[in-house]
């Protein structure tokens, strides 16, 4: 659900630049942002919008979403009357979010920022990180830093709610291809897994985006997409190390459903 990310993005044929820090902004720009919006526009739910809405039903204070993207979740919550605020490193994604907020007639401010820029103190009743976005940070130390920042940013009693894909995803290596019809042609996305590191719990894929007009390739973008997969117990332990209590898990966006061997995504709720 997460793609696209990356430390590398370049038009085919040119030399890619490589970012080396995990907290560097993952790409999510140009064709990648176009595809995100085609595939996951505001309101598109995987069951997550319903579950987050349920989990947040008694929340009247400010909800903060880092990595808010095109506003898929942020604007859905704002439309339900919640006070929301987001940050997002990709200017293309922020533009989509601002446009959608205007179209929906809601107040959903979104600023530029990475997880590592979260500096608020006791400001939010809830912090949400849906769609597995925390897995884009592949260094466990940097995830710990993010969780500590989130803990500081929450009001006493506030909650962090976020998703993690099953650890099984680390070994899902089948190639995939998808396409979307657009006004003047077709946009395609193909994914090839390049490497899996069980030691680091990291999977690296190549994402190749292409725009085709009348059967001619007019634009292409190649990215590396790197994800870290977490065990639920290691994440629960890390949350407790960072000061969270009462860590609860919900399987496959079903409120109160336990995690089993078949679960594909876990939503984790941790209280300050
Ligand atoms: C899978 S999208 C999720 C968007 C939105 N939260 C949703 O639920 O649809 C992941 C987002 O994380 C952002 N992102 C990538 N690296 C990040 C980082 N280090 N810190 C904060 N956001 C990051 C991307 O730009 C992208 O918009």
Explained architecture:
The structure is a single chain. By secondary structure, the chain is α/β, with parallel strands linked by helices. The protein has a single domain, classed as Rossmann fold, CATH 3.40.50. It has six helices and twelve strands. The strands form two sheets. It has a seven-stranded mixed β-sheet with strand order 4-3-2-5-6-12-11. β2 (63-65), α3 (74-79) and β3 form a beta-alpha-beta unit. The longest helix has 14 residues, at 91-104. The chain is globular. The model is unreliable at 3-22 (pLDDT under 50). The structure holds S-adenosylmethionine. S-adenosylmethionine (SAM) is lined by residues 2, 5, 23, 25-26, 28, 40, 66-69, 72-73, 88-90, 93, 114-115, 130-131, 133, 136-137.
Tally of discrete structural domains: 1
CATH topology: Rossmann fold
CATH architecture grouping: 3-Layer(aba) Sandwich
What is the average per-residue confidence, as pLDDT, rounded to a whole number? 91
Order of helices and strands: EHHEHEHEEHEEEEEHEE
Q: Report the radius of gyration as a whole number of Å.
A: 18 Å
How do the strands and helices of this protein lay out in sequence?
Blueprint (H helix, E strand, L loop, with lengths): L7 E3 L20 H9 L8 H8 L7 E3 L8 H6 L4 E4 L3 H14 L5 E2 L12 E6 L10 H14 E12 L10 E7 L2 E13 L4 E12 L2 E13 L3 H10 L3 E7 L13 E7 L1
Parallel strand pairs: 2-3, 2-5, 3-4, 5-6
Antiparallel strand pairs: 1-10, 6-12, 7-8, 8-9, 9-10, 11-12
The chain binds S-adenosylmethionine.
Pfam family, one: Methyltransf_25
InterPro entries: Methyltransf_25, SAM-dependent_MTases_sf
GO molecular function: methyltransferase activity
């Amino acid at each position: 659900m997460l793609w696209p990310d990356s430390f590398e993005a370049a038009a085919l044929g040119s030399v890619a630049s490589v970012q080396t820090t995990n907290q560097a902004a993952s790409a999510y720009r140009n064709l990648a942002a176009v595809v995100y919006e085609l595939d996951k526009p505001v309101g598109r739910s995987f069951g997550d919008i319903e579950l987050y809405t349920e989990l947040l039903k008694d929340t009247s204070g400010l909800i903060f979403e880092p990595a808010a993207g095109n506003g898929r979740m942020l604007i859905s919550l704002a439309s339900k009357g919640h006070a929301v605020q987001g940050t997002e490193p990709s200017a293309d994604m922020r533009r989509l979010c601002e446009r959608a907020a205007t179209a929906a007639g809601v107040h959903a401010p979104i600023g530029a920022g990475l997880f590592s820029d979260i500096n608020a103190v006791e400001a939010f009743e809830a912090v949400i990180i849906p769609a597995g976005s925390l897995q884009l940070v592949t260094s466990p130390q940097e995830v710990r830093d993010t969780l500590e920042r989130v803990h500081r940013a929450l009001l006493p009693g506030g909650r962090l709610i976020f998703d993690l894909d099953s650890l099984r995803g680390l070994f899902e290596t089948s190639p995939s291809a998808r396409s979307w019809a657009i006004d003047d042609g077709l946009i395609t996305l193909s994914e090839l897994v390049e490497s899996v590191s069980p030691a680091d719990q990291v999977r690296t894929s190549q994402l190749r985006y292409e725009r085709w007009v009348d059967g001619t390739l007019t634009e292409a973008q190649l990215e590396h997409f790197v994800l870290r997969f977490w065990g639920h117990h290691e994440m629960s332990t890390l949350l407790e190390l960072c000061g969270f209590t009462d860590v609860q898990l919900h399987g496959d966006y079903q409120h109160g459903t336990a995690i089993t061997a078949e679960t594909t995504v876990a939503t984790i709720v941790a209280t300050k």
